From TrEMBL, chains A, B:
Family membership: Belongs to the inositol phosphokinase (IPK) family.
Name of this protein: Inositol polyphosphate multikinase
Enzyme Commission (EC) number: 2.7.1.140, 2.7.1.151
GO biological process terms on file: inositol phosphate biosynthetic process
Origin: domain of life: Eukaryota
Cross-referenced Gene3D superfamilies: Inositol polyphosphate kinase (3.30.470.160)
Stored InterPro entries: IPK, IPK_sf
Catalyzed chemical reaction(s): 1D-myo-inositol 1,4,5-trisphosphate + 2 ATP = 1D-myo-inositol 1,3,4,5,6-pentakisphosphate + 2 ADP + 2 H(+); 1D-myo-inositol 1,3,4,6-tetrakisphosphate + ATP = 1D-myo-inositol 1,3,4,5,6-pentakisphosphate + ADP + H(+)
Function, as annotated: Inositol phosphate kinase with a broad substrate specificity.
A molecular-function term among this protein's GO annotations: inositol-1,4,5-trisphosphate 3-kinase activity
């Protein structure tokens, strides 16, 4: 899943033409409302692959985005409702996506070197036991931060964290108290981790830029 | 001091005219760059009152805003450099403005009921021993959050926290290790507080709206 982070994708020094183009896309998509938008996603499950068409993803509403975040970690993504069967193993846990997002959030609360306009988070997981992966990608419009935090990226990141945390809470409620798997919300994970080190999750990307 | 929080002051349902007006102001001021702008400030000090003219404040650059955040807690606001003599007693400490901003931040990371467009933080302190005060004011454009966090306000708030934290760190460095006052940065305060309760700092405002 590719999630473009930030309510605005235009950067201060952009040309008026590029600025107007970005502004329109941000308002037409969920970016302005939700602080992020889904650019694309696919799931390989037991009976095949689920991949909504690009044109459909472009028109996603806030409700569609919330639903897609659930479908992405479901064994039956094309059914209603999706089962969210992989919520705890992909989004939850100390090595899960939510924990990695919180680590990235700590970094963004402190770092003032870079502003990431129109950058994405790539979220991926395997069938096997390996931890799910979070990568910051698409660095075509990275600007110097000039001593200011990237409040645009950070705001969108917090919004994604909130959405994902809610999915985990719902899955925990649905699983009931007897379920052996311990699901963790953002607050639980932050409390357990204590004050975060400003570590960076940024890694080599598929584009080879990092 | 009145600080308007958020990189954007327009709300999704605004008319095109209002939207265009806000967008221009956000780009012309420090809002888009810094995630907040100063709307006005004054300091009563021993030898009189320091109050930059409204037209001057409107044209503040990022550098001016940083400087004003220092002047606001200085005993010599109209001298260069300002002494930041009140940094620890106004911004720092467990009841200081930074601690209150961090509490407000915890609330904004969780609450999805309201979006505060064009709202301000009023920061005030007295000569006496009373704790400095932080109030959320100007609720003319509060919209329903519809389950989404106010990532626009939150991002700007984090940017203000970072700026204030840097002033405290600088004051701490300047004071040296023998200074009896313990100044605290955002990270120290968050670590000491542990996972924050979603308490709200919102209180009665000067406009009587709350």
């Amino acid at each position: 899943m590719d999630v473009k982070i930030g309510a605005r994708t235009w950067y201060p020094s952009a040309s008026e033409k590029y600025y107007a183009k970005c502004l329109k896309k941000d308002r037409d998509s969920t970016s302005a409302l939700l602080g992020f938008r889904i650019s694309g996603l696919q799931v390989h499950h037991e009976s095949g692959r689920w991949k909504p068409h690009r044109d459909k993803v472009r028109k996603y509403t806030v409700t569609d985005v919330r639903q897609s975040l659930r479908q992405f970690i479901s064994k039956n993504p094309d059914e209603t409702p999706p089962d969210c069967a992989l919520a705890s193993s992909v989004y939850g846990g100390s090595n899960g996506i939510l924990a990695q997002l919180l680590e990235l959030k700590s970094w963004f609360e402190d770092q003032t070197l870079f502003h990431f306009y129109s950058a994405s988070l790539l979220i991926a997981y395997d069938k096997g036991a390996k931890a799910p992966r979070l990568k910051l990608i698409d660095f075509a419009h990275v600007m110097e931060g000039e001593g200011i935090i990237d409040h645009n990226f950070l705001g969108g990141l917090c919004s994604l964290i909130k959405c994902m945390s809610e999915i985990l809470s719902d899955a925990e409620t649905a699983a009931g108290p007897t379920d052996p798997q311990v699901l963790e919300t953002a607050a639980d994970l932050e409390a357990a981790a204590g004050p975060a080190e400003p570590k960076v999750v940024v890694g080599p990307t598929e584009n080879g830029i990092h």
